[in-house]
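re: ur question from earlier - yeah i can do the single chain one, its not a big deal. heres the input i used so u can compare w yours
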Amino acid sequence: MRDGRVDLSGRPIWQDASFDVESGTIAVILGPNGAGKSTLLKSVVGLVGLSAGTLEVLGDAPRRGDARVGYMAQSREADSLTSLTGRDYVGLGYDGRRFGWRRSRDKVEVVERALELTGSRPFADQPLRTLSGGQRQRLALAHATVFRPELLLLDEPLAGLDIAAQAEIVDLINLIRDTTGAAVMVVAHDLNPLAHVVDQVIWVARRQVRSGPLDEVVNETTLSALYGHPIEIIVTPRGRRVIVGLEEEFAHPHPHGTDHRHEDVHEHFAEVYDEVTR
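and the output i got, formated as tokens:
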């Protein structure tokens, strides 16, 4: 993306966004509620158009239904499908993008491959409503990777999961990256579960976008400049990052004077103060 801008409801969500995400890398998109993290992801998948600037996805303009791009929406968007079995749900990822020459045998093979890659086969024939959050997220990843995409977009894949399940999904995302060589973009509200696999951070806040390696973006200098007031980062003995100074941003994420009707609702980067005392 070069100098990208998106306007919604008559106001800019973010602007002057410039970044590249290389093949085989994991980019984590962070920022406060309402900053436009999911909007950024949807611009890449072709669901939201840029108001200014340019965006190239795998050498082409972004477009819906590109089989080279896998998209995993937030889990709540699949709630209406809970009566399906896991296998049927993954099969929808094939049906929505199949080409005329593909046969039923192709679908079986493609779905089985995706189930195997994500470790979902043991529970693939159970209804989604009977599965744990971690199992459903594995199937959602299988759904998104059914065609072995070159670019994988994941919107809050760790939301609602306990710490153990989060760790399993992060390991699976890393495995998919290593196995397929895909570029992966992950919207998250907490960097810490992903810190050991992230290659790039894209931080969205106050209509601005900052992108770069983890330590170049998640540091006191960069975040203080981005937010316009001092930010302190504490690293706990276990290596977790705690950000101090975003309490007001967490409570009131929209800059003064903006239209509060727009809600791009996601949680803020977690501030785990209790870690400091452990």
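The domain at 2-68+149-214 is CATH 3.40.50.300 (Rossmann fold). not sure if urs matches, ping me
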